[in-house]
Amino acid sequence: MSLESYMNQIGQQARAASRLLAKASTKQKNMALFAMADALESARPRLISENAKDMDNGRAKGLDSALLDRLLLDNKRIDSMIEGLKQVAALPDPIGEISDMVYLPSGIQRGQMRVPLGVIGIIYESRPNVTIDAASLCLKSGNATILRGGSEAFYSNQAIAEAVTSGVVAAGLPEHAVQVLNTTDRDAVGMLISMPEFVDVIVPRGGKSLIERISKDARVPVIKHLDGNCHVYVDDEADLEKAFAIAMNAKTRRYGVCNAMESLLVHSAVADKFLPKLIGALQEKGVSLVGCEQTRAIDSSVELATEEDWYTEYLAPKLSIKVLANMDKAISHINQYGSHHTDAIVSQNYSKTRAFLTEVDSSSVMVNASTSFADGFEYGFGAEIGISTDKIHARGPVGLLGLTSQKYIVLGDGHTRDN
Amino acid sequence: MSLESYMNQIGQQARAASRLLAKASTKQKNMALFAMADALESARPRLISENAKDMDNGRAKGLDSALLDRLLLDNKRIDSMIEGLKQVAALPDPIGEISDMVYLPSGIQRGQMRVPLGVIGIIYESRPNVTIDAASLCLKSGNATILRGGSEAFYSNQAIAEAVTSGVVAAGLPEHAVQVLNTTDRDAVGMLISMPEFVDVIVPRGGKSLIERISKDARVPVIKHLDGNCHVYVDDEADLEKAFAIAMNAKTRRYGVCNAMESLLVHSAVADKFLPKLIGALQEKGVSLVGCEQTRAIDSSVELATEEDWYTEYLAPKLSIKVLANMDKAISHINQYGSHHTDAIVSQNYSKTRAFLTEVDSSSVMVNASTSFADGFEYGFGAEIGISTDKIHARGPVGLLGLTSQKYIVLGDGHTRDN
């Protein structure tokens, strides 16, 4: 079969499965999630032996240790995949929820019903656990899924796919509810993102270059996460103890995450008082610092930042620091150089916090809290498929709701429209 | 200035204006709408004389009478543009609304704030009144707008643009809040839809071919309306009087609208009883009919429908009729041949109406009501910028809310994340 026929078949099967999933009951979907967990449990030896093939191939290809670590499937990771399935089963089912049902002057009642998006394509790198994460969230939200993982995880993903499908079928749901592509041909990705007749939305998960390439070529809507160049602004009316705790947490909790602070903005009236202690504490943690001239006047061990630094998401123990004359300049800086991901103000001033919340154009805007909280679990969604830096559809951490849409429903009793 | 520099300048100005509009107060935005109305009132002679140039050019180019009618600006149409501005001013302002603010286990409060999308590009055909419709809805929702109207309405749109800008400036809002392109170069459209750095969303208004072309080429999200191949399904448990009224209203209220019924589906158990009277009434109104073999067995004056007919939005006094064995077949037919716009069931059976609402995959699904109700005004939105047949972001009639997004806001008091 040609690749094109294969992708066409996958698409048609997904579309047909999506019709059945859209009307599946919560009970059936949860049964499928538990059956998937059981199937993973039974498949442990096979999962580990298939993963060993990927690991061997990866080592032979010379993958670095970070990539090999992401690729690894051991018993602990299988445990957490199984646990994840149970957690998703425990989440409330958003599908079918009816809201805003009101009587209108014509006599009809109009409201909205939450429905699945239909078919979701997920493109991700060589992390086998994403296969289960993505499949479980899409299934719970009543969507059919087409998964395309990184080629380095090919054998692992095929083994996971078998377990997933056996669980889905055991619960009486359609066999093609979750399909993992069984080709490593790169052209398959290009086809997957240009089948609007079969695929309703693409969620790419991975590095910025992968996501940019997919967004550029896609003929289907993309829910995407680009970079997280997050800021904390410390106001002249900040409680400096809170500011210290928040800045340290936002920068040093974890370095490689998208909600880490990458740039610190400090009001000039408190820079002398605030920065020396913070700079010392950050340097003690091994964070390398670049800053504006005013920052360097306070501590000359800070390197001079370039224009490029203000745009940069380091994803590393590195921070840029800028001293500014007032909050308006901080807001302008964030809206210009930031990535509209997550930005925070530390201030005790009521009017300023109110203005900051309104004027900063980011998917999460925070007052007196660490940017680290920008996360589906911390926001109470129970799980997340990613964080969207788009403004259309889902913005910010995307949980089950981001994988749904709302249609209008109208109830009448023989009503017709007059004019 | 080259076209590219010009479009770049327009984009930068729009982005800068959008920052100011995002924080404009409701009072200021309403003042601007009233000032725009005053400016249109004062500009009446100029609007009419500039429109006369377009009308002369249109006649010389041989535009047909329907196009010339759409192009015409007379005092009555100016009245209704002015009235439209006042209606938009009277709508509640969605911007800044905070919802779902909850305390989470970590101690932070998390909610969502409604915000403008940013910059909206509107591409439309030669109907000058759309300039005011679109500009007013975008302004009220805090967005900057770039408008590109049909070239036949060039002089009319420029004159309207002057009035709009004078109103905007009189209210202290940014001069570039609403920009009407002053070029008829077709390449400007291509540039407008590929500037994601300056334009957040494109709303094309016009025929299907325009919209398909724009969707295909856009590098920016598109809120689009394709066709409205709407169905009414008359169940064997329908109240046939209600079914008759609904079918007549859905088909004959207006023929050229997207929410008109284009295909009637009838349960075989009531076809003999229901169809003869309906066919007679429709033919009396001049509606030409095509149908399946079973329909033709009931009335041989109905022409045989082709496979193509079931896919077709006639936008004309024409209807396709199909007799089916049960509701499930009707739902499958609608989901396969329909355009996911608006579909209705007529039935007194509780379980069937409940299943129809859930299983039909359309932007509006109705029970015992005419498809004609699928409309922003009828749904109580006060105005609509169009009807979306997409599933992502806005689906169905798009009012002010469809021109907004929601960002997360987090309030803490020095909160940091533990793990």
UniProtKB/TrEMBL annotation, chains A, B:
Record field: catalytic activity: L-glutamate 5-semialdehyde + phosphate + NADP(+) = L-glutamyl 5-phosphate + NADPH + H(+)
UniProt pathway: Amino-acid biosynthesis; L-proline biosynthesis; L-glutamate 5-semialdehyde from L-glutamate: step 2/2
Keyword Coiled coil: no
Broad EC category: oxidoreductase
Species, as recorded: Marinomonas rhodophyticola
Pfam family, one: Aldedh
Keywords: Amino-acid biosynthesis, Cytoplasm, NADP, Oxidoreductase, Proline biosynthesis
E.C. no: 1.2.1.41
Keyword Transcription attributed: no
Residues covered by the Aldehyde dehydrogenase domain: 8-283
The protein's name: Gamma-glutamyl phosphate reductase
Subcellular location field: Cytoplasm
NCBIfam families per record: PRK00197.1, proA
Gene Ontology MF: a single term: glutamate-5-semialdehyde dehydrogenase activity
Main location: cytoplasm
Similarity comment: Belongs to the gamma-glutamyl phosphate reductase family.
Biological role stated in the UniProt entry: Catalyzes the NADPH-dependent reduction of L-glutamate 5-phosphate into L-glutamate 5-semialdehyde and phosphate. The product spontaneously undergoes cyclization to form 1-pyrroline-5-carboxylate.
InterPro entries tied to this protein: Ald_DH/histidinol_DH (IPR016161), Ald_DH_C (IPR016163), Ald_DH_N (IPR016162), Aldehyde_DH_dom (IPR015590), Glu-5-SA_DH (IPR012134), GPR_dom (IPR000965)
